[in-house]
Amino acid sequence: MKKKQIAILGSTGSIGTQALQVIEEHSDLYEVYCLTANNRVELLAEQAHRFHPAAIVIANEARYDELKRLTDDIPDVKVYAGAQAINEIVEAKPIDIVLTAMVGFAGLTPTIHAIKARKTIALANKETLVVAGELIGNLATQYHAPILPVDSEHSAIFQSLVGEDVNRIDKILLTASGGPFRNFTIEQLAQVTKADALRHPTWDMGAKITIDSASMMNKGFEVIEAKWLFGVKASQIQVLVHPQSIVHSAVQFDDGAVKAQLGVPDMRLPIQYAFSYPKRLTLSGERLDLFKTRSLEFFEPDLKKFRCLALAFEAIEKGGNMPCIVNAANEIVNRGFLEGKCGFLQMSDIIAETMQRCTYDASPTYDTYIATDAEARRIATELMNK
Question: Has residue 201 got a pLDDT over 80?
């Protein structure tokens, strides 16, 4: 049987490295065709030596010579650099699946190129649907490119919907760990440090998504993503804070029945399911032991404390390019918080102000998204540097 050829955009990040573990465990089924990274040349070179892809791409063109030098001894692996090279490599004929594990707005354009090349998209870059959900949905339909969710929550919803094609969704129950500050007061949140925010209680993720989880903006983005992935209204999506991170999400149907997917927190499972769907493959690792699970708790999120989640709902209601504005402003303040340029609570203040100031467009095109992203970043940067 021919092995499925997989391109991993963002192979040096948390999702990318775990995807390589899945491919390694099922090397009889999957093969790496291409690996890309933004800056981490050493790890990318190491991965190239280990997996021998047809090509590797470093987005930061300034690191090309360094990467070329590190991979001189594997001349069969082609080395490219720059964003355009990533857009082009995903169109390569042999590729079956493109795993979009890049962080942020940067994932949008290569995903569009992969869709137009009719590849199966294993979607781990949530910003793609946050920014341009309607556009991506229309393109995926037009080019018959399946989009399979890799986020643990959206994978759980997707798994709960398998076999339910004709049945109407009443409500999506989107779970959230609540992050490290679930029980903090607003006064305590004002004093939060970068080190505090990077200590996530249940998931091991990259810095950007860990900060987004702490502010609950990540959950806001997941609400927007769920709306486009599953064709529901925002009012049909309920966020439940679930500290144990065992129920990964659930779907309630018209008859009141609720189907959920449970498991230990392990991102390899949703990654593997996106690769193998509709089949399930064996996966090494820990299993869920319900006897050891003392309790499963669920709480309503506090939208006053976690204003970022409220702003995401506001952006969905407004529609148009508003989610794009929120995403761009969030990328600026997230980086700003990590660099000590703004406080934890200031992040939502700057995002809210950017939403007020940025040019709104009710019917955005691809070019609108590019312009909106640039404008919102500029406004958020100015506000942060005041």
Answer: no
User: Nearest to residue 5, comparing CAs of 42, 40, 44, 51?
Assistant: 51
Closest CA to 129 of 147, 113, 153: 147
Whether residue 376 is predicted with pLDDT greater than 90 in this model: the reply is yes
pLDDT at 214: 92
Radius of gyration for the alpha carbons in the chain, expressed in angstroms and rounded: 20
Of 45, 43, 50, 55, the closest CA to residue 23 belongs to 50
Mean pLDDT of 179-189: 90
Torsion of CA 120, 138, 363, 100, to 10 degrees: 0
Q: Are 227 and 315 in contact (CB under 8 A)?
A: no
Average pLDDT over residues 282-298: 93
pLDDT of residue 203 exceeding 70, the answer is no
Residue at token pair 């999400």: 249
Name the token pair of 48: 């190239």
pTM: predicted TM-score of the whole model, two decimal places: 0.93
What is the C-alpha separation between 384 and 386, in angstroms, rounded? 6
- DSSP H or E stretch at residue 32: strand 30-37
Amino acid at 298: F
pLDDT of residue 196 exceeding 90 = no
Neighbours of 354 (CB within 10 A): 27
Taking residues 243-272, what's their average pLDDT? Answer: 96
Residue type, 103: V
Average confidence (pLDDT) over 156-179: 95
**Sheet strand arrangement including 237-241:** 237-241, 169-176, 247-253, 258-262
Q: 203-208, long-range: CB within 8 Å, 24+ apart, which pairs?
A: 203/177, 203/245, 203/265, 203/267, 204/14, 205/14, 206/13, 206/14, 206/103, 207/338, 208/103, 208/104, 208/331, 208/334, 208/335, 208/338
Report how far residue 244's alpha carbon sits from residue 295's, in angstroms, rounded to the nearest whole number: 8
Task: Please tell me the distance from the alpha carbon of residue 355 to that of residue 379, in angstroms, as a whole number.
Answer: 10
